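In practice, a research group might receive sequence data for several interacting partners and want a quick structural hypothesis before committing to experiments. The following worked case mirrors that situation: the sequences arrive first, and a predicted assembly follows.
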Amino acid sequence: MNDIVNSLRRTPYQTFAALSVLFFTLLLSGLLFISLTFLQGLLNYVETRPRVIVYFQVKAEDEQIQAVQKNIKNTNKTSEIKYVSKEEAFEIYKEFTENDPLLLEMTSAEILPASLEIDATKPEYLPELAEMLKNQPGVDEVQFQKDIIDNLLKLTSKVRKTTAIFFSYLMFMSIIVLTTTLSFKIALKREEIGILKLLGATNMYIRKPFIGESIFLGALATAFANIILIGTLISMNTFLQGYFDGIPNLTISLAGMPLQVWPFNLTFAIATLTVTSIFSLCITLISSFSATNRYL
Amino acid sequence: MISFQNVTVRYPLGNIALDSVSFDIEDGEFVYLVGPSGAGKTSILRLLLNDIHLSEGSITVDDFEITSQKFKKVTELRQKIGIVFQDFKILPESNIYENIALSMLVKGFDKSQITKEIDDALRLTDIEDKKYLFPAQLSAGELQRVAIARAVVGDRSIILADEPTGNLDPKTTWEIMKIFKQLEKKKTIIFATHNTDIVNSMKRRVIVIKKGKLIKDKKKGGYEL
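A structural hypothesis for the assembly, expressed as tokens:
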């Protein structure tokens, strides 16, 4: 460890350059990882809550609504049906418009539609249920989450592609900078490497200090990046609580294991640390091997 | 046992560094390799280290047989050999102990063995008090002693010395030769030089190389330019 620290102190500018690039790469990679996991968690959440909302015409009778509720229940494709009366709808409306009294004054329970919130047992039943509801008497409008899921899927796919391109670019850039920095250091130690080779040192023995040095830099950059990432997540907790209000948790599957993304927890912090550490290890190993290869 | 059988080294442009050279060296033997500059002495030493490749013939070093450019056990071969260069090749940023320890670290010796062997080597070369000094604090003669200490530690049975006294004054040269005399019988020593005084004073086996050819191989021989 002392050798590594001494070696880094002897070339402070190169060390700073390599550390900065690694830090920004890992910080951005961590941010991308967190964004992607939140998005995927949101998608999973929406997919696991297949819901159709049917709004009735204002003049629809209670009997009509009950008949629709009964017909839908008989399909055995629903898990829960919740009736929202005009009065309940008005209460919800009041909550939404509490900061805008003018809007509230212009509205009454009479002009709001009653509705049914229908949870399907499987997401693929949603189009079928929606189609059936459209043809029921007294129905004004049917909304279901297909559009939301489609949009989320499109967004997730775009973010995945962008992440892949960005990851590759960041990795390439970091490898180039780190390889150049290490090559410079190796060039300074060319005579020492020559002597070591004549003494019978294996290639791995010669590589070891350079690999150790780059892994040390990578570990330092990973630690800094994760302090910033986790600190940011903790400081954004209140904002995110408001944003994800009503969503108890967001979960994704990572390497076959369920990982709770929201609410923010220690396991997710460890997962972020692990992902950035693996990324850092890949960059530092590739860089140190390619830099030393030229001299062995 | 070291054996050269019809060894030829031909460089890519066609010039010949060694031309069908053959000789055998027994374990524990002290051999002077002499000849004018450019005769091929260093080429023989570099061949033994597999630092250059032979074009024809074969070289045997104990269990290792080098017959082609595809010799794979370079590391193992080099771990049997200690080297002493004319320009010392001591690392300036490491102290004397660390420089000598390199020779053992590359072979995976543990710390207690390293410390013991280095102490013995420092006693042999008479630089015990310089253990923690840095190369810049040592004279040329002392640096060559460090190089010899590095060559003898780590269970290395062969020592190759390439003009080890070339940069030293006569007094220091004789002091260095005394150390090599102490190593006789314990190690196989191949000592490349063109210093006739050294060769003639010790009356050991002399292999004379000239223009890449072995022209004389004499037990207890001498040498004249």
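Before designing any experiment, note the following. Residues 2-218 of chain B form a domain with the Rossmann fold fold (CATH 3.40.50.300). The longest strand of chain B covers residues 16-25.
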